[in-house]
Design brief:
The protein is α+β, with helices and mostly antiparallel strands. Helices cover about 45% and strands about 10% of the residues. Strands 1-3-2-4-5 form a 5-stranded mixed β-sheet, with helices on both faces. Strands 19-18-20-21 form a 4-stranded mixed β-sheet, with helices on both faces. Helix 12 (about 285-300) packs parallel to helix 17 (about 450-465).
Length: about 725
C-alpha cells in the first residue's frame, strides 16, 4: 500500500502540506485535489465515481496554462469535484506513477506529455487519457469540459464496457515488448566492441551535422549519448574519431547557443528549434548535473580545435557555479529545478527573465561604460528586437489573460565567439547579469530528489578533481552528507525531501544507482572512505530490493493501484528518458563497485543487466546511451589505480594524473597506505595491503594484473599508457 496516502476524505483541497512544490502550487485551486494514495482511491470506490489523475511538474509551462484555464476556474472545478475524485501527481516525486500512466496514455491516445490527464477506475486501471485539454475545442481536440462530460456519461451508462476496456489495457501493458526486453533474465552477455562501433555509426546516421545533436526539433541535450561517445573516443578503435567529432559538434553547438545561459551558466531543458536558438526555459538539476559531468570528462581527452579545452572549462565552471548559486538548499542538498515561467503581475510568462531587446542590450552596454558596444552585442547575440513568443508557447503572442508575452529574444551567439567578440562580451556581461538579477526571477522547486542529487555529487566530484577546485568537492560532500542524514534511514533510501524532512515513497532503482555512483565518484576524488561505505550499503540494499528471481524492477511495489494498472507485472524500463535508465545506471554503479571490491558476482550482475543491449544497440542507440557507456567501461576495464600515502601534494599530484586518464574502465581508490601494516584498517578491498612506506605511491592493475608501485607523475603516466 502507498505510504504517502494523506488524502482528506472530507472533500477539500488536501495539497497544502505536500512536500512537492508542484502540488503546493495547486493548493489554492477550487478543485478538491488529493495526493495519490489509498485514501483517494477509497473515496472513488465509496462515491462510485472515477479518479481524474492529473500529472505534471513544477517547471512545466503547459501545466501552468491548463491550471489557469481549468483548475482555477470555479465552474470547471465544480463539475470536476462533483463527478470525480481529482488526484494531482508530481511526476518528479512519483516517476513510478508517471511511467505506468504515460504508457497507458500513449496506448489510448497515441501521444504523451505533460500535463497528462488520465481517468481511472477505483482499482487504478486507466480507461481514458490525453494530455492538455483547453477550455475550448481546438483543431479536433475536445475541450476539457467536453472530455469530463463524455467520461461521466460513459461511466454512468456503459460501466461494463469501461471496465472491460480498462482490464484489456492493463493486460496489454503487462505483455508489452518492453517488459520482455526488461525482464533481464540473468546472466547474459554484454555487447562486444563490434556492436559498440556499430552503435556509433548508427548515431552518425541521425546526427544533425549542421546544428549539432540528433534528430530534429524539439531537440534535447543527449547527455548519456555524449558520455558514450566520449568513452568510445577514449577507447580508440575504428569509430573513435567519428565519436569524438559527433560529441564535439554537439557540445560546441549547445554551449554556444541559447540553450546555455550565457550570463549565469546552466542549460535549459530543451530547444523548440533544431538550431538550439529558442529554449524551453526550465532548468533542471538532472540535465545540468549530467552535462556538467560530460563537459568535465571532455577535459580528459587530448585538447584540440574542435571543442577547445578552454571552452569546455568555461562551461564546466559556469554550470557548476550556477548549480551552487541557484539550486543549493539549506543543509547542502540541491533543489529540483527553476521554472520555465516567470510570474509577473500574476501572469505566467514563459522565459521572461531571460529575454532581451536590442534596446536593453544597448542600455546594459552603456551602463557598463561601453556605449558603442550595443549594436555589436545585438548582432553577436542574435537579438532581433522583435516581440517573439517564448519557448513552448507554439507561436502564441498572448498570455492566457490576453496580455502580450514578454518581448525580446534569448541570447543566442550561435557558436563560439570570435576573440574580439569575446572581449566585448566579457566586459559587458557582468552588467547584463546584474540587470537581469533585478528582474522577477523564476520560481524554484525546492524538493530534493535523492537520485538527482547523486548525479550532482558525481558531476561536482569529477569536476572538482579534474580542475583542482576544492569548492566543488566541498559542495559534493555537503550534498552527500544531506543524503545520508535526511534520505537514508539505514535500510531504505527515501526519494524526496523538503525542508530537510524526508517524505513519501522509498527510492526507485534510479535513486539508489545514481546516489551510489555519485558517492563512489566522491570517494575517488576525496579519499574519504565514508562515501565508499555508504555507496556499498546502497548497492547491496538495491540488490535486495529490486533484483528478484533473476530479474530487475524499477521500483518496489509502492502502490497497489500502479501495480494493477501495469497488469500486475513488475518491470524495468531499460531505455534512457529525461534521466539515464535506472537499470543501466545500476549496472554502471555495480561495475565500479566490483572494481573496488573484487566481487566477480557483482560484475556478473552488471553484465547481466546489459544483456538486452545487443538487440537494440544499433536500432535505438539514442535511447540507450547510459547502457552503451557502461558497456564501453566493461570492455575497457577494470583499470584500477590505488593512490596511497599521507595526504600531501605528492599524493594529490598522483591522484590528478590518474584522474586525467581517459580510460572508460578507470577505477581510482585513495588511502593512507597504512592498512597493510599496523595502521588503521580500510573498508576498500582495492587498498588492502597497499603500503606506502610513508610516501605517496600509485599501484596500477589492469584486468586484475598489477604492476610495481610508482612514485612520480611521469612513472604513473607510463604505467597507465604502456
Amino acid at each position: 500500500m502507498d505510504p504517502t496516502s494523506g488524502a482528506d476524505p472530507s472533500g477539500s483541497n488536501a495539497l497544502a502540506a505536500e512536500p512537492s512544490a508542484y502540488l503546493r502550487q495547486h493548493a489554492g485551486n477550487p478543485v478538491h485535489w488529493q495526493p495519490f494514495g489509498d485514501a483517494a482511491f477509497a473515496q472513488s470506490r465509496d462515491r462510485d465515481v472515477p479518479v481524474f489523475l492529473s500529472i505534471g511538474y513544477a517547471a512545466c509551462h503547459w501545466c501552468h496554462v491548463m491550471a489557469h484555464e481549468s483548475f482555477e476556474d470555479d465552474v470547471s472545478a465544480e463539475y470536476l469535484n462533483a463527478h470525480f475524485v481529482p488526484v494531482k501527481v508530481d511526476r518528479e516525486e512519483r516517476p513510478d506513477v508517471d511511467a505506468v500512466y504515460m504508457a497507458a496514455t500513449q496506448a489510448i491516445s497515441g501521444e504523451g506529455g505533460w500535463p497528462m490527464s488520465v481517468f481511472l477506475t477505483p482499482d487504478g486501471l486507466a480507461f481514458h487519457a490525453g494530455t492538455y485539454f483547453g477550455p475550448r475545442p481546438v483543431a479536433g481536440r475536445p475541450s476539457f469540459r467536453q472530455v469530463l462530460e463524455a467520461v461521466t456519461e460513459a461511466w454512468q451508462q456503459r460501466r461494463g464496457d469501461v471496465e472491460h476496456s480498462a482490464a484489456q489495457l492493463a493486460a496489454g501493458l503487462a505483455h508489452s515488448p518492453l517488459n520482455h526486453i526488461a525482464g533481464l533474465g540473468l546472466p547474459a552477455e554484454p555487447p562486444g566492441a563490434d556492436i559498440l562501433t556499430a552503435a556509433v555509426r548508427a548515431l552518425a546516421a541521425s546526427e544533425d551535422r549542421a546544428a549539432g545533436g540528433f534528430g530534429t526539433a524539439p531537440k534535447f541535450p543527449p547527455s548519456s549519448v555524449l558520455e558514450f561517445l566520449l568513452r568510445h573516443a577514449a577507447a580508440g578503435g575504428p569509430a573513435a574519431a567519428e565519436a569524438r567529432s559527433m560529441a564535439s559538434r554537439t557540445l560546441t553547438a549547445m554551449s554556444g547557443s541559447a540553450l546555455f545561459d550565457q550570463l549565469a551558466g546552466g542549460f535549459a531543458r530543451y530547444s523548440v528549434t533544431a538550431d538550439w536558438s529558442l529554449p524551453h526555459f526550465e532548468k533542471m538539476l538532472y540535465d545540468n548535473a549530467a552535462l556538467l559531468r560530460v563537459c568535465a570528462h571532455w577535459l580528459r581527452l587530448p585538447d584540440g580545435s574542435d571543442f577547445p579545452r578552454a571552452d569546455a572549462e568555461r562551461v564546466v565552471r559556469m554550470t557548476a557555479g550556477w548549480l551552487l548559486a541557484a539550486l543549493r538548499v539549506d543543509g547542502g542538498g540541491f533543489a529540483s529545478s527553476l521554472d520555465a515561467d516567470t510570474v509577473i503581475d500574476g501572469v505566467h510568462r514563459e522565459g521572461a527573465t531571460y529575454l532581451w531587446t536590442a534596446e536593453q542590450l544597448s542600455a546594459g552596454a552603456a551602463a557598463a561604460g561601453y556605449p558603442d558596444d550595443g549594436p555589436r552585442l545585438t548582432r553577436m547575440m542574435n537579438v532581433t528586437g522583435r516581440v517573439r513568443a517564448a519557448g513552448n508557447s507554439a507561436g502564441r503572442d498572448r498570455a492566457p489573460d490576453g496580455s502580450p508575452l514578454h518581448p525580446g529574444s534569448p541570447l543566442h551567439p550561435a557558436g563560439p565567439l570570435a576573440p574580439a567578440d569575446r572581449r566585448i562580451w566579457e566586459r559587458v556581461s557582468p552588467e547584463l547579469l546584474r540587470q537581469r538579477s533585478g528582474r522577477v526571477q523564476p520560481q524554484r522547486d525546492d524538493k530534493v530528489v535523492a537520485g538527482w542529487n547523486g548525479l550532482a555529487i558525481a558531476a561536482l566530484a569529477d569536476a572538482g578533481l579534474l580542475l583542482d577546485e576544492p569548492t566543488y568537492l566541498q559542495a559534493a560532500a555537503a550534498a552527500a552528507d544531506y543524503l545520508e542524514t535526511v534520505h537514508w534511514d539505514g535500510a531504505v533510501l527515501i526519494r524526496v525531501s523538503h525542508a530537510a524532512a524526508a517524505r513519501g515513497i522509498g527510492g526507485l532503482l534510479e535513486d539508489y544507482a545514481f546516489c551510489a555512483d555519485g558517492l563512489l565518484a566522491l570517494y575517488a576524488a576525496s579519499g574519504n572512505e565514508r562515501w565508499y561505505v555508504l555507496a556499498e550499503k546502497l548497492l547491496l540494499a538495491a540488490e535486495r530490493r529490486f533484483v528478484r528471481d533473476g530479474a530487475v524492477a524499477d521500483s518496489a511495489t509502492e502502490s497497489e493501484q500502479v501495480f494493477n494498472a501495469a497488469g500486475r507485472v513488475s518491470s524495468a524500463d531499460p531505455f534512457d528518458n529525461a534521466t539515464p535508465s535506472g537499470t543501466s545506471a545500476f549496472a554502471a554503479a555495480l561495475l565500479s563497485y566490483a572494481g573496488y571490491s573484487g566481487s566477480t558476482g557483482h560484475r556478473a550482475l552488471a553484465e547481466g543487466l546489459l544483456g538486452w543491449l545487443p538487440t537494440v544497440a544499433v536500432k535505438a542507440p539514442r535511447a540507450a546511451g547510459c547502457a552503451l557507456a557502461t558497456a564501453q567501461a566493461m570492455l575497457a576495464g577494470p583499470l584500477e589505480v590505488a593512490v596511497v600515502g599521507p595526504d600531501t601534494p605528492a599524493r594529490a599530484q598522483l591522484l590528478r594524473v590518474a584522474a586525467l586518464d581517459p580510460s572508460p574502465g578507470l577505477i581510482i581508490a585513495v588511502g593512507s597506505g597504512t592498512s597493510g601494516g599496523s595502521g588503521e584498517a580500510t573498508s576498500v578491498p582495492l587498498l588492502s595491503g597497499r603500503g606506502s612506506g610513508g610516501s605517496a605511491l600509485a599501484y596500477v592493475c589492469r584486468m586484475m594484473v598489477c604492476l610495481q608501485p610508482v612514485a612520480t607523475a611521469d612513472e604513473l603516466r607510463r604505467a597507465l599508457n604502456p
